[in-house]
Amino acid sequence: MAEGFTLFLLSGMLMCGLLLHTVSQHGANVDKPSKKPNFIIILADDIGWGDLDANQPEEKANNTPYLNLLAEQGQRLTDFHSPASTCSPSRAAILTGRYGLRNGVTHNFAVGSVAGLPLSEVTLPQLLQKAGYYTAMIGKWHLGHNGPYGPINRGFDYYLGIPYSNDMGCTDLPGYNLPQCPACDSSGPQVIRLKRSVHGGCYSKVGLPLIENSSIVEQPLDLWTLTEQYKSTATRIIRNARERGQPYLLYIALAHMHVPLAPPLPPEVSAAGRRPDDSKVYTASLREMDSLVGAVKSASDDTDKDNTLIWFTGDNGPWEQKCQFAGSVGPFMGKWQTSRGGGSAKQTTWEGGHRVPTVAYWPGRIPANTSSSSLLSGMDIFPTLLSLAGVTPPSDRRYDGIDATNILLHGEQTGHEFLFHPNSGAAGTFGDLQTVRTGKHKAFYITGTGHIQAMCVQNQSHYIQSVFIDVCPPWWIDGMHNYVKSSGLSVFSEHNSKRLHFSSFLLIVHYAAFRYCHFAVFYKPRITSGSVI
């Protein structure tokens, strides 16, 4: 019994130190392709882990047939996490391979933001562009839309998309949202709509623009035709790449599944001019997104199938406050930590906020119909693609992503030993370290004064069999509590550049086949100075 506690304590102490990864790790013995591969990154917005049919086959849904095929012919990454639980920080980390407090993006950029991803940051498209790649982006940027911060100035040769989220500007025919937002004020100028929304949660002061390269080509854009514009542009880029004979990076940042949703209306609804049942809107939008993925896969398969890696993932979990217009977190339904609006997914460091559906597809290179439970992050896309392209990133900075090539191509079950999740708006300060994951355990660091709580969350009853007794026996709880109370637990937080001395370990979550046991002890830490990393 004492030996078991000691072993766990050692692993817990390791968790409290930050493991610094470099892009050279995990990929040292990688066999490079004979020619530079093409890369297609498809990033869904506000998508739930449970939205992918292949992640929940017992549900027998058929909402994502093309993604199911992608998974059947590729590899599902079942323990893959977005770098943050909200839009801008997650996207910045994906393109830089660095946590938000390294790359400077810890908040979402607003419509009125004058800056963006710091210009000192080097992005994935910039590095691939210098290596001879044609780089194109379609979709939501959300990393700064003024002057030098736009995508054309951050490494993309071509861009078509929206500068921020599709709910951050009015449209003439609004999609489905909660609350339902009004149309643009038709009495105002065509571009600038001066009348404010009657709903505080709606942005309707400025018409939502569609931008091509650096020019506005439509304002307000038509949400209901946006998917077809993205689809036709993506397939054109892929097919033109073969004629150029140039390797390419295509980054598709979808509007799906972010509200407002604007799925194709059923013929009977369109003819009658009425709205369909709200309960069917999300499913229809999910199927529309899936059809776009299918079109991209088909175009890629028809051109350079054996030399193209398609990587599908999400920027964060579903926006649960949107109720019937939000996705499924699958079995990750813990309600212990919630965001200000009451949800437990997007904006939180609860599992539903950052565990996202992820599939990697590369015929002939990635073994078909496989899955990996390696602990991975969206930050790993940066070093992995650079490694496959034979590109070395600048050595004047630290990176947090790892090269996952051997996981994808050779079935290795390595991954992050430690993975940090920043605060994304649920409480406290944006960007601050809030959660640490190592192996089957996840620790939450929460400032406050309170009492000891121990609880088990039954996500689905048939998964639970005396989990609390099996995973968190009383000797373990008493031993951990007494040890940290008597000696203190020192956590070096590179995230906050401060040394945190906790008088108690805060929250341990044990993962075992969707069975969770939570142990929480709330004590206020004292903060002293520490070295900046």
From TrEMBL:
Residues 1-25 form the signal peptide. One of its GO terms (molecular function) is metal ion binding. It comes from the Eukaryota. Residues 37-391 form the Sulfatase N-terminal domain. InterPro entries: Alkaline_phosphatase_core_sf (IPR017850), Sulfatase (IPR050738), Sulfatase_CS (IPR024607), Sulfatase_N (IPR000917). Gene3D superfamilies: 3.30.1120.10, Alkaline Phosphatase, subunit A. Keywords: Calcium, Hydrolase, Metal-binding, Signal. PROSITE patterns: SULFATASE_1, SULFATASE_2. Its cofactor is Ca(2+). Pfam families: Sulfatase (PF00884). PANTHER family: ARYLSULFATASE FAMILY MEMBER (PTHR42693), ARYLSULFATASE G (PTHR42693:SF42). Belongs to the sulfatase family. This is Arylsulfatase G. The gene is arsg.
